[in-house]
Known about the structure:
This protein is mainly alpha-helical and 456 residues long. The protein has 3 domains: 41-141, Fumarate Reductase Iron-sulfur Protein, Chain B, domain 2, CATH 1.10.1060; 191-320; 324-455, Rossmann fold (3-Layer(aba) Sandwich), CATH 3.40.50. It is 46% helix and 6% strand. The protein is built from 24 helices and 8 strands. It has a 4-stranded parallel sheet with strand order 2-1-3-4, with helices on both faces. Helix 4 (102-109) runs antiparallel to helix 6 (127-141), helix 11 (218-228) crosses helix 23 and helix 14 packs parallel to helix 18 (345-351). The longest helix has 22 residues, at 253-274. The structure holds iron/sulfur cluster (2 copies). Residues 71-73, 84, 87, 111-117, 127 line the site of one iron/sulfur cluster.
Amino acid sequence: MAGALGDTAVAQPAGQAQFRPCRHLQPRPAAPGVLTVTDRPVTEGAAATGEVSPEALLRRCVHCGFCLATCPTYRLLGEENDSPRGRLDLMAQFLDGGPSGPEALRHLDRCLECRACETTCPSGVAYHRVLAQVRPRLAVRHPRPLHRRLLRCLLGRLLPWPERTAALLDLAGHFAFLLPGGLRRRLPPRRLLPRRPPPAAPDLLVLGGCIQSVTHPQTNRDLATLLAAGGWSLEELEHPACCGALNAHLDQRPLAEDHMKAWIRTWEQRSRAVGRPLGILAVASGCALHLREYGDYFATDPAWGARARAFAAAVRDPAELVTPDQVRGLARHSPWRRLVFHVPCTLAHGLGTGERVRALLEAAGFTLLPDPDPWRCCGAAGAWSLLHPRLARRLLEARLARLPLAEADAIVTANLGCQLQLASGTDLPVVHWVELLGAAQVRGAAQGTSAGRRSR
Ligand code: SF4
Ligand code: SF4
């Protein structure tokens, strides 16, 4: 076990548990000199000021337009209403009772929720918080076309459940010849791994992942391998499998809350069983960010607010628990050396751990090829790419076109959605950094030369 109990407390399900940080799970400092502006805390800006109403958040926008330069949809379409500033204006008009209609909702639906605008904004406009509060209200006033509603409903009721996703993939596999080429290329193979018995007293719980557990179950195994070298033991949770992000981004709040409450309850039960708050991990950065923001979702809920904040305080990104020393030299056990590092938006603009991952890859000995357009969105954005396949394809092509793929052995990233999206547009292997380092460690151990063995 890596950490001591300290003075932490397990949240009690029935009460208004007092929020206390999990001191034994504090992130270890990254290597000196690797912290950059992207390593900002996720609560920075308007969120930290206590402003919660969309009107208050909107007042921060000074219409400077800096955010336009980094917005993927504005860069692609060149429309003011498909820019952060334009969307904020559309939402302000709606809140003011001004003219609004289905057209406004169409522009809001085109938003990838990548948060690049928040990183760029000098006024700290918490754009995603405004969107999360206003778009569902706009959709009630001006319902989406029937076919859109059906598709959103279908995605929200299938994808968050691994068994349904697996059945869907099996079905799609049988009838792949009927699918359009773009969708066929995006179909990931279904993979199965036998369950492993969980450790008796784990330090950390990891999300199985609704899609990940069906398409990339090995990544959590690789995470367990990496963390074991640092003394952490990990239990993968089969249920609940989904963090709720998918439903939340589809504005399906009740379904999202079901997943989130199930996670909070499970964490509380497991933590009570071992007598200390367990850490919570997700290898997909999109899921990790959503887990870390549970406190925001239940901020005004008297029954769940404190429990959600206690839960969120226990969430860690894997890059915060693996140290450069643990992975030093592992690249020599990998079939690839020269990598393109695609930083997912959720890592760059949400979790802020992109530089930590970069430091780990460099410590392992990989060569990271220069990216002329770092943090450019690949067009995945969860279910967004299924709702907007043409735009997603154009964003992917624009992303890949500027990467030095001819010199690379593989693309490495940190989010499953990006992994699937990028893999649909290139023949290069596309891997999660955890998978890359975990597999190298296993190979190294098999050869008796891994860094882990040497240090024992
Ligand atoms: S950068 Fe910020 S303040 Fe400027 S227009 Fe965009 S959201 Fe508004
Ligand atoms: S979240 Fe991304 S796509 Fe949406 S407005 Fe901001 S930069 Fe543009």
